[in-house]
Amino acid sequence: PILDDQGNLLGYRGVDKDITERKTVEEELKKAYKETETLLDAAADGIRIVNRDFTVRTLNSTMAKLAGIEKDKAVGMKCYEMFGAEVCGTEKCSMRRVLKEKKQIHTETVRRRMDGKQIPCLHVATPIKDADGRIVGIIEDFRDITEQKKIEQALIENEEKFRAISDSAYDAIIMMDDNGNVSYWNKAAEKVFGYKANEILGKNLHYLFTPSKYQKEHEKGFTIFKKTGKGNAVGKTLELTALRKSGREFIAELSLSTVKLNDRWYAIGIVRDISERKAIEEELKEKLKELETFYKVAVDRELRMIELKREVNELCKKCGEKPRYAIDKIGTGG
Questions:
Q1: How many distinct structural domains can be found in the chain?
Q2: Handedness of CA 224, 226, 231, 233 (dihedral sign)
Q3: pLDDT for residue 261 is more than 90
Q4: Measured between alpha carbons, how far is 68 from 116 in angstroms, rounded to an integer?
Q5: Among 17, 175, 240, 319, which one is most buried in terms of CB atoms within 10 A?
Q6: What is the pTM of this model?
Q7: Cβ of 176: how many Cβ atoms within 10 Å?
């Protein structure tokens, strides 16, 4: 206002200031904010920005869906109220660690939705710093790994089932990698060969179990297997000589197959100790041979007996006597 000496109002004086530049900056900031919000909403991970006092400043749509809350209602809430974990409020809290350690923190955590459901997540907390390097907030990234955890659990269960089945098997089950080293060894293999799993895993199979006189032949075949996964023994059941930990040789039956894992060939062998069976087979052969010899002797004796009886009958006939022996059509006589 413009006043005279007596304080009476005479008029007004104004100063105009051009704020075009400021308005342009404001519009650009609004545009940038909108673009940032769009980018955040396009992200597959849940993302939220939290102030130093743990108040949620903003979040994307994925974060709201992950936490089970509307975006507008989440803004202003404490982060531990919206998508908290058991470590919230403790020294293990990622937010507290970021403020204390002033660096990005990576953790695997289980978070609690607004409806109480537990969600396993990979969590990354990154500090937001001002021009002077002071932390003014934290960006949190949450990746839902529920499906990954289900797959991991299924794999664990399948592995446990396989191990239970293989450990109850009578035959030795062995897996060998493309370097010839043992990568799997079941309980039966421990009994057959005498090595515990911790003694044999990672060790070369051929040098331990193949008698020295057969090793060159095995090495030749293994070179082909390593390149192609094929070999003379693959897909067949063979009898071979194997070596126990004690150094004693035994007869084994081997069924061999191959599988390719991560571009590497592995051999899976099922080994059965057939020493006892071979011993029984040999004994059976001996008994059959003995029986055959005895049978031949018995048949020869019987034939000679028949011939003698016929000769006696002929002599009786010449003497005018009745035949003493009746000889049947088969020729056994009596």
A1: 3
A2: positive
A3: no
A4: 9
A5: 175
A6: 0.57
A7: 22
